[in-house]
Amino acid sequence: MKRATSKSAVSQLRAPAEAAPAVARSGTLTDEAYRRLRTDIIGGTFKPGSPLRLEALKDRYGLSFSPLREALNRLHAERLVVSSALRGFRVSEFSLAEMRDAIETRVLIDVEGLRRSIARGDDDWEAAVVAAFHALSRCAARLAQLKRERTVEEDEELEGRHRDFHLSLVSQCGSRWLIDFSLQLYAQTERYRRPMMQSQSTTLPTRDIEAEHRAIMEAAIARNANSAAFLLEQHFRRTGTMIEEHLGKSGYIEEPVRSAAG
């Protein structure tokens, strides 16, 4: 009886396993479409408000309509894409009100995540924060020495290091939901920050980003929760203010929407 049960269990496991390659391939293609579209939207390849037509996306990425449509629906859920029955999918427009809302919500989420990580994190968490800061600083310093414009790959490398640093700060908060929200809000603010950073050296005030990151890192590993939280909050809000200035100088006519603290 035991042998029969075991054989039956193996049969039940084998059936879905045999179908797994097709399912896995479909999921992989959708993930690829999602990743590439998301990178192009956040990086500015597709400008705010520009249409995302399936036929053009198929030609660009070499993927079929099904994974592209699924990827667009995922991006719609993340508010990076909008859709309508008549106009189809389009990249979400820039909005100062939306940007400020994302910044203020990020303050709520990431500051709480940092406080929890400081309370819960062990020596390995401290080491991860220090390592992420070091990797970001070295990457930024190396790219700053370039005598030419950065490539797309170099921009992605720097942004990845930056994202890793901020993720490390909240990584031991103990909440998968909080981390997911943090990453989504990071993407929302990144798409506003990317064009700003390209013109920062000539149109915006000088800002020592490395010093801000270092101060946050040092307060975090010193377990000074109040100081770390304050520094992170100010870091986010300075970014929001600079984005607002940049969008104003770039011809956006929407009235700035300032937070109570900003």
From TrEMBL:
<dbReference type="Pfam" id="PF00392">
    <property type="entry name" value="GntR"/>
</dbReference>
<keyword id="KW-0238">DNA-binding</keyword>
<dbReference type="Pfam" id="PF07729">
    <property type="entry name" value="FCD"/>
</dbReference>
<feature type="domain" description="HTH gntR-type">
    <location>
        <begin position="27"/>
        <end position="94"/>
    </location>
</feature>
<dbReference type="GO" id="GO:0003677">
    <property type="term" value="F:DNA binding"/>
</dbReference>
<dbReference type="InterPro" id="IPR036388">
    <property type="entry name" value="WH-like_DNA-bd_sf"/>
</dbReference>
<dbReference type="InterPro" id="IPR011711">
    <property type="entry name" value="GntR_C"/>
</dbReference>
<protein>
    <submittedName>
        <fullName>FCD domain-containing protein</fullName>
    </submittedName>
</protein>
<dbReference type="InterPro" id="IPR000524">
    <property type="entry name" value="Tscrpt_reg_HTH_GntR"/>
</dbReference>
<keyword id="KW-0804">Transcription</keyword>
<dbReference type="InterPro" id="IPR036390">
    <property type="entry name" value="WH_DNA-bd_sf"/>
</dbReference>
<dbReference type="GO" id="GO:0003700">
    <property type="term" value="F:DNA-binding transcription factor activity"/>
</dbReference>
<keyword id="KW-0805">Transcription regulation</keyword>
<dbReference type="InterPro" id="IPR008920">
    <property type="entry name" value="TF_FadR/GntR_C"/>
</dbReference>
